Amino acid sequence: MREEMMVNMVRMEELKLHYLGHERQPSFYNNGSEKSVVNKTLKTRLLIAISSLFGRR
């Protein structure tokens, strides 16, 4: 069980890096830009992915 949790943590970090690692521009925080809408959907997908990882026991 502990090992599975560790694997999930690593996967979560990889997902975070994959989705957020490329987006370090100020536009990431700018709600007026079209790009931030894309980033919001990515963040939402990321949250769903994370919750599904932890949901599987």
TrEMBL record:
Q: What is the protein's species of origin?
A: Paenibacillus urinalis
What is the protein's name according to its record?
A: Uncharacterized protein
